[in-house]
Amino acid sequence: MEIKERTLTQLWISKKDSSAHKGRIKWWIALKNMSFCHNIINISCVKSSWSNDVRASLYSLMMIIILTTLVGNLIVIISISHFKQLHTPTNWLIQSMATVDFLLGCLVMPYSMVRSVEHCWYFGEVFCKIHTSTDIMLSSASIFHLSFISIDRYFAVCDPLRYKAKISILVIFVMIFISWSVPALFAFGMIFMELNIKGAEQIYYKHTHCVGGCSVFFSKTSGILAFMTSFYIPGSIMLCVYCRIYFIAKGQARSINDSNPKLQIGLEEKNRISQSKDRKATKTLGIVVGVFLICWCPFFVCTVMDPFLDYTIPPTLNDTLIWFGYLNSTFNPMVYAFFYPWFRRALKIILLGKIFQKDSSRSKLFLESS
């Protein structure tokens, strides 16, 4: 703080112009009331000026989001890992996504919370790069999992006879490997090689970079690349697959209704369960697509537009949209698990402590034919 006081005094004395003297007084008073992340104010980021009540409210809200994300995804992980009846290819993909979302809530969100509330980064520049890379990697990996789950559901609903042949355990593991490796290479490569600021170095170091901060910055090229890789391509896959499933399911229902009455009666019982599963899969996937677009679309649109708007989007708005995107990981276990009866039964067993009983892993959570 000594350096801060000396710098202010020198600026005060150096101003001899009486017309600028009054303006300098106002500036000096305002600067005196500011808090900085570093003691050298001309290179430091400015701390948030929120009151303690506002900070406490923000911390409470973010802690609720973090805890909900951790608990919800941890229950999904435990359920699928423990109960043998849930050991299916689709559920391994869901479990992998739950692991991604759990790690996002465990490794990324707490540090993002401090940065968002305080507007300062207290954990060093190297860890800033690690945190930013991990943030981009896990957020993108979660979105990749969503797109692969939509593909899995497409084959289950639209080509059920060949589903097991096409979507084997090996295929699921390949999907999981791609969902982890591609975002990891993209995120860590971009941040540690500083490809995200390539072409906009002067703007970044002159107007954006400051000591004690850890903001995510993209140039025009890297912003478009991040938008395409992490949002547009997987999002388009999800949207197209959902539309395809919806129209196929609708066509199948119409075909059954228009068939011969005797044949219809004969097929009714046979197709009842299949139709119910199709409707549930279509409805669930529709909710997934809607939640995904609502949570992530605002952030990625701002990310790709900000460089073309000369970085005029306020950092506070960007932080808010990041947390809005995090909510997708909070809602994922609710959408994919809470909508299914087997999850509610698994949750009851876990909460009552029956999971520690002998042979609890063989508990029947649903009828095999249902």
Automatic annotation (TrEMBL):
Q: Subcellular location, in the record's words?
A: Cell membrane; Endoplasmic reticulum membrane
Q: Which UniProt keywords apply?
A: Cell membrane, Disulfide bond, Endoplasmic reticulum, G-protein coupled receptor, Glycoprotein, Membrane, Receptor, Transducer, Transmembrane, Transmembrane helix
According to its record, what are the GO cellular component terms?
endoplasmic reticulum membrane; plasma membrane
> Which part of the chain is the G-protein coupled receptors family 1 profile domain?
72-336
Q: How does it sit in the membrane?
A: Multi-pass membrane protein
Give the stretches traversing the membrane.
58-80, 92-113, 167-192, 224-247, 285-309, 321-343
Q: Which SMART domains match?
A: 7TM_GPCR_Srsx (SM01381)
> Do you know which SUPFAM superfamilies this protein is assigned to?
Family A G protein-coupled receptor-like (SSF81321)
One Gene Ontology MF term: trace-amine receptor activity
Which Pfam families does UniProt cross-reference here? 7tm_1 (PF00001)
Task: Write down the InterPro entries for this protein, in alphabetical order.
Answer: GPCR_Rhodpsn, GPCR_Rhodpsn_7TM, TAAR, TAAR1, TAAR_fam
Hey, which family's this protein in?
Answer: Belongs to the G-protein coupled receptor 1 family.
Q: Which PANTHER family match?
A: HISTAMINE RECEPTOR-RELATED G-PROTEIN COUPLED RECEPTOR, TRACE AMINE-ASSOCIATED RECEPTOR 1
Name the UniProt record assigns to this protein: Trace amine-associated receptor 1
Gene giving rise to this polypeptide: TAAR1
